[in-house]
Every structure is written in C-alpha cells, then in structure tokens.
Amino acid sequence: MLGVTGGIASYKSAWLARLLTLAGADVDVVMTRAALEFVGAITFEALTGRQVHSDIFAVGHALDHIALTRAAHAIVVAPSTADFMARAAHGHADDLLTACLLASGSEGTAPPILLVPAMNDRMWAHPQTRRNVEHLSGLGYRVLEPAEGMLAAGEGSGPGRMPEPETILAHVGRLLESPGALRGKRVLVTAGPTREPVDPVRFLSNHSSGKMGVAIAAAAWRRGAEVSLIAGAMSISAPPGVAITPVETTEDMANAVRAALPRADVLVMAAAPADFQAAKVASGKIKKASAVASLALAPTTDILASTVDQRRNGAIIVGFALETHDPVRHGREKLANKSLDLLVVNDATEPGAGFGVDTNRVTILSKNGEDAVLPLMSKDDVADAILDRVEAQLRGR
User: What is the pTM of this model?
Assistant: First the structure.
C-alpha cells in the first residue's frame, strides 16, 4: 500500500508508484484529500493499473481500511507531511489513510510500515515533530530520515526533502526481505578500479565500472546486513544505505580493507585493483617530446594475500578473478593460494560478461567443492546467487 499525503513532494510519489509496479508489486494507492490537490488520482491509476482509494465514506467501500491493510505486505507513506505524522502519532482515524494505519494492527502482527517525511526544514526540526517521530518509532513504524537539498518555494537547502524514489524503493526492498543469515552481519565489499599514477596527470587503470560490487553491496544491505563499500573510481553511484569509503590506489584500497576487515563477517573482493604501478612516478608531467620508449612497472599490493592476518575467525572471504584463458583452472589456483571460501570467476573475452556491462556469466568455485556454473544473467541476479552461497556457508559455521 502506498499512502500519499498533501505535500508538494507528492509529485515524486507517482514515480515511486511506477518503480514499485515495474518491480512486480501490486500497488494500492491511498490518497488523502489534501494529496488530491497536488496530484490527480488518475495519474496513479494509469501508472499502477489499479483503483486509487481516497474516500473513507465512499458508498460500498465502508471496510476498505480493513481489506487494504489485510492485503498489504508493506505500507509506505510518501510523502509523510508533518500534519499526517502528528495525526498518526496520536491515533487519529479521521481519513482513510490514518484508519488504514490503525487497522494494520500492533507491532508483530502488522505489515512493516515505512513513513517518508517531507516538509520544510524548520518544521522537521520543531520539537513537536521530533516528539511525534520518536513516538511513531516507538510504535514500530520505520521513519526514513529526510534528505538534504533544495526545498519548495525557494527556501534554500536543508533536511526535510523527500528522498528520491529509487532510494525509497531500496528501503521497501529491505522491509520485505525475509530474515536470512546476513541479517545483522557486517559485510565489507570492494568495487571499481584503482588508479596508479604515472605522473601528476596520468595513471594506469582498467575498464572496471564497479557495477558488480555495487550490485553485491545493494543486495547485502537489502538482506539486512550492515554494509561498507570500499570504492575506487566507479562510474556509478553507491547504493542507498551503504557506508562508502572512496580510495584511489591499490595501496589505498589495501589499507582500507586492512582497517575494516577485523570487524567484518564477510568480505567480498569484487573490485578490480590495478596489478601494476609505475616503478617510478614522475614529479612533473611527462612531455611527449621527451617521453621514454618504455615504462618500467612494478607489482602492486596483493590485497587478499596481504590481509589474511586481519580476517576475523569464521569470516567468509569471497574473491573475484577475471581471466582470458582457462578461467576455471586459474580460479582454482587462486581459491587455494589466497585461502578463500568462494571465488567468482569469469571470462573477460565472453560477450555480455565482464567490465562495463549490466550482465555477467560466472562460475562460483567453493572451497568445499560445491561449484556452480551460472548462465548469463543480470549482475543483480549474480549478486543474489553469490550471497545465497555466502548465507549457506554462514549457516554452516
């Protein structure tokens, strides 16, 4: 159920309804009378293909608040205005949406309820609003922190802006995820390429986009994990809910992994750190006319090998290997040599797999010999397949 209240941010709710529908959900939209002043019901009906509900006194719909909440696997109110949260906090049932919240039952029997505040920053900071939020949280409602950014009517920037629909969608996914072995675990993920300087303006790197690592971080957070992402120069944004540590060089990434690894229950090394660095970095820009014919290289730090002593007892360690020749054989060697529990290997020469694309075809090698050869699939699906095996290993320890 998507509740929409009367705030200017309700225009974003239309896109949220569409995203939920595209994700496969049946979306029942419940609008307050004030919300109808901002966005018409027909907009949501066109986007969801379902009837919009708004009138608690509609003839023949006297029990809508009961039927709608019984059918809901999750209830999201976006935007949640200051007025709506005040009425909800005090148990009002003077419109269909507040009646639905009361009809959902008490914590433990109710579907999860997510409130997404949107208001002026001064209204958000008011002690009355803060007390209402605290009370609603005590009742078991999840209250999403508002974003910071430009507010309505030229009010400048501050906390109170409704988060973007894609962020809300991610939180809905976390609400709906069944409890698994990753719930409450600390998961450390690396993603993207590293860059090794040649001179002040040039560097050595690779074509990694960070998409695979981001997909894994997002999937782990959705499953209830506390996720930290150590990211090189990615071409995509970090997912919602994930703490990000940006790094530049392979040594930077190794140091960040070394610092975070003692607290991690799971490490997924999905990054593509550079294997080589310039043997000597020029202090000034190398001029084309005076450039040498060759560049001397030196190996970079092997992150997995150099952090073995930082792994906590019982942690699951997952490596990645991108190969161009006999990937499974080389993968088995790395699995053993780097003391890994799982190694995800793929062939860089295969169309639709590897760097920069949204799909991948991988083989997941396991220390216990239970390997899995996966077909070409989206990187989101690959991430879930990897984490399914991580959870199976966690349950076995």
Answer: 0.89
